[in-house]
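FW: tagging you since you asked about this chain on Friday. Here's the raw sequence from the shared folder, copied in full. Didn't touch anything.
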Amino acid sequence: MRIGSVTRDGRVAAPGTAKAKAALPWREALVEIYGSAARKVLRSLSHTRNRLTEEEIAARAERLPYNAAKAKKHVELLSRYISPAGKTILDVGCGSGDTAIGLARAGADRVVGVDMDPHRIECAQRNAEAEGVGDITRFVCADFVRGYEPREPFDCALSIASFEHVLEAERCLEKIHRSLTPGGSLLARFGPLWLSPYGAHMFDFTRLPWVHFLFPEKVVLDVRRECFRPGQAACRYEDIGGHLNRITAARFRDYALRAGFQIRKLRLNPEKDGKWRGLLMPLNSVLNATPVLRELGALTLLAVLDKPRRAPRGTCVGSFPSTQGSAG
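HL: got it, structure written out here
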């Protein structure tokens, strides 16, 4: 295998040397120069405070205790739209199981959590036993879209902080729809979405907004590997640990309607509605109603989707609500 560029006299120049750069076509040379400069700029705007190896990540995940405050927050959110008492519930992207355990403690009849991370699934099972709900909860380590089949339909489903990481988001919504009983509901909350300032989820090593549009993808991922995850040699945002699917609010809405859901609520940045005694709600409503602004300002998205009790005869019903008030 030959490494390097062939110079005019036929010799191979080592990569990165002056001869190699001179042998490159001028466009490739410009790209290389620009990439090198961009990498230096982004590196100067980044930090290594959250740098962890894969082994360190796994060790941390295995030691995670049950987070009662986090569980309470998510249970209260679901309870605003769907009562968990007596329900069978599917938790897609359950992580370490805090929400699933919280739902079991809140009176759910049965909760099944699905996640691809084996360390977090082990943590969820251990914490469920410690909290006395091991007989009510079940945790499955699998790719929900391709590797999981429900044993029976669920009354409702939820997905917290995971939809921006699902590579096949449309198929995921279709499968959740099939997994629900007629009249069942899905609550999803996730973000930041792709077009928002931190849609690339690179805030763990740089606070520069829209870094994924200001710098080439390769540059961002190279700096990410150096400053944040040294064990992840990703070439695309889709390939990083946890994945990024570049989803937008409009795309999520279209996927939900095509899957057969009816939209009960679709609200961007619902947490802003309750800030400063509701003073931000009118501004947030303007943002929700304006196509360009809602994508650029989509820090979080809250969706409550219902599976019709009967199959619709015509087209799906649903729109992007612009003036919904309650915080989610």
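FW: The longest strand covers residues 180-190.
HL: agreed, and The chain is about 40% helix and 15% strand.
FW: great, closing this out.
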